[in-house]
Amino acid sequence: MSVQVKIPQNTTLSLKTDLAGTIIFVNDDLVKLSGFERRELLGQSFKKIQSPETPELVYKNIQKTLNENEPWNGLLKNKTNSGDFFWANTTITPYYDRDGKTVGHMFVGRTASEKQILNGENFYLNPQKIESGFSLNPKKILYKFKIKTKLLFVFGLMAVLMSALGINLILIKKQEYEGALNRLKGAEYNLSLAKLMRLTAKHRGFMARVLNGDQSAKEEANSIEKELESAYQIFLKLNEDEGNLFQVYEESKDIHKSWNHLKEINSTLTAKESYVEHVSLIKRMLNVNNEVGESSGLFLDPDKDTYFMIEVSLTKLPYLAEKLGQLRGTGLAHLVKGIKADPFEKNLLQEIIGSVAGHFESITVSMAAIRKFNPDGKKIVDTYEKAEVDFPILRELIQNRVIKEKIPTIKTKEYYNATTNLIDQIFNVNELISKQLSEKFAKRANIAKIYAIMVLVLTSFALVFFILLQYLIIHSIMSVIRNSTNIISQIVRGSGELKENLDYGIHDEIGGLLKWMGVFILNITEIVFILRQVSGELSNKSKDAANLVRNYSATTQDQAASTEETSAATEELAASVENVFSSISTQADHLKEIEKVTSDFKMAMAEVANAMFGMTNLTEEFYKQANDGMLTTKTTADSIHIVNQKAELIDEVVNIINEISDRTNLLALNAAIEAARAGDLGRGFAVVAQEIGKLAEQTAHNTRNIQSLTTDTKNAIKTSVGLMMNTEESFRELLANISKIQETAKLVSSAQEKQTTDTNRIVDSVHKINENSLQILNAASQEKIAVEEISKSIETIATGTQVIADNSLVLLETAKDIEVTGEHLQTVVETYKY
């Protein structure tokens, strides 16, 4: 099961690829964390280090971004050589050659937060859903769009809101205009109706006189009919234009038909029937008047200066005029009947007068409001007040001369003129109100129209200005951003200079950002200047160090070869000493046998006489063995001479090792000096140089030990040579003695006593030879131990020399890496121009 590995803090993972995605550089942090060898990654696709769970959508997104020559940033899941994985917040940027051409891409990875890792795991599980999913996070939504798109959206939204506000104001003013126009038309329509009601009321009064027998009123009735016909023509034209608007078209046409019908049958009706028909016609006109007031919006007008005028004009004055008309018609009919008049008609007149008085009181209240809220209504109020003053006079006239009298004393014409005068005043007030309302509504309509046109013009101008301002703002922002981005991208590509100026004289936040970016570029310029100097020195010093390490490595290899030769010579010396030791051991065994033989010979001297014949053969054999011993001793002496020569060779090897150690020590000192000059970059080199110095000192110390051992060995060899010479001399004496024994054996019979003495001498000589042989054996053993010590020391020297050689190879690789790093640093720094 794979385990997540966390990137240590302050660790940067980086690698470089060419345009095909092949890795050409890997830093040490990535090599250490991934567990791959550097050679396993170089030359491979960057996907080698990516987790196999990486969605193809991620690679497509990376490729798309890099194809646009833009940096890519995101979270990548990477794998290690052991099968584990780690998340890296990765930035992929193009890098360029000196001509500003893209030659590859740089991957830089850093540690990721827990939240980023959680989001990355969710994305890797279902990339299609996450990529196409809709987010309600406004930041994520805004981050998907470019600055120009955001500004266009904001300005467009403001333009839409401004347009909507302007359209709303236009619609409001249009509605006000249409409302004022409808009220104007309604006022004109009702004014025409008021004229018809006034003429119809006059016609009713004249017909009441005519039908009651006053033929003098017939001419005036005919004149009124002609006025009514003319007024109806105007009314019908208005009805054709506006009747459907106020939903009274058919009813208005019916009123005209009813008038025509009344005009035809009027002469055949009684006075009372004519009166009822006229009242019914006027009531229908009043209904139309109310419907027009409602449908035209007159009743809904909110302005105080017109509200009370409309109220008086539509709901009070017409009814007052109608009651006065009834008062005129009823009174005229009563007066025409004279003595035949019905007393009930006086009660009716009394009732009508009371109703008229109530209407006057109500209208007076409204007139006070008109005076208060309408400064232009003075003429209306004055006209009404005159009628209000005339009404008590008319009422007193009717009370005293009509109602209270048994037979009315007032003339018909006087009564008609008095009532008609008051009715005309009331209609005059209504016409004045209607005209003023028409003027006000016309003025309102014109103001609303002018205001709507002004709003339209101002809105259009504001939109044009806003669009122009939007263009200028976006252009100024985007031009600065594009220019700055272009300058920075050229600096990164190497085609621009670090001394480029980003200060455009802008005092907003972008200007502040550009100023600080300029300061940042100045700091980068200083760093690049220093790095350019350091990189050149580093490159040169690293090349010198590499050459020095190469020479040192070659010398160390030669030293290692020499040490191997010394080790081989020491092995040969050890083998020779081993042979000498074996020969001396064999000689010691022989001497023991000789001692035993001589002892037996001494013990068997008593039997010599009986074994003289065998003694001769034995003496010859002993002579032969002694001769072999002498030859062996001589061979041993020659071997010791060879050992002595080898020991001299060891001195030469030790001198060579001492010289190598001195040169190594001097080389380490020079390397330490060069590392100190390199500063922090040579710190690792200084450590290697210090270790080389220690190895050189250890080599010198071991060499001194070897030289001391060699000196001891040579002294031991000299001692052995002396002993062997003594042994050889002893063997010569032994041979001489054996020769004498042989001679004595020939004369044994005559010199038995002398033979016993010689035998004793032989025993003593053999004993001495045995002691000398033991001494030689001990010396050979010490020599063997010394040679083994020399061999071990040389093996130690060989091992140390090999370690030095291996370290020199590592040091050579390090020097090469420093050389490559210096060249890479110099290449990167030379990208920036100033």
The average pLDDT value, as a whole number, equals: 77
Number of strands: 5
- For this structure, the CATH topology of the largest domain is Helix Hairpins
Count the domains: 3
Oligomer: single chain
Approximate helicity band: over 70%
Distance between the ends? 53 Å
Our count of helices gives: 18
Shape descriptor:
rod-shaped
Largest sheet: 5 strands, antiparallel
InterPro entries: MCPsignal_dom (IPR004089), PAS (IPR000014), PAS-like_dom_sf (IPR035965), PAS_fold_3 (IPR013655)
Protein name: Methyl-accepting chemotaxis protein
Domain Methyl-accepting transducer: 534-798
Domain PAS: 18-69
Short structural description:
The protein is mostly helical and 834 residues long.
From the structure above, extract its key features.
Beta-Lactamase; Helix Hairpins; five-stranded antiparallel sheet; 834 residues
What does it look like?
This protein is mainly α and 834 residues long. It is 79% helix and 5% strand. The protein has a 5-stranded antiparallel beta sheet. About 1% of the residues have low confidence. This is Methyl-accepting chemotaxis protein. Keywords: Membrane, Transducer, Transmembrane, Transmembrane helix. InterPro entries: MCPsignal_dom, PAS, PAS-like_dom_sf, PAS_fold_3.
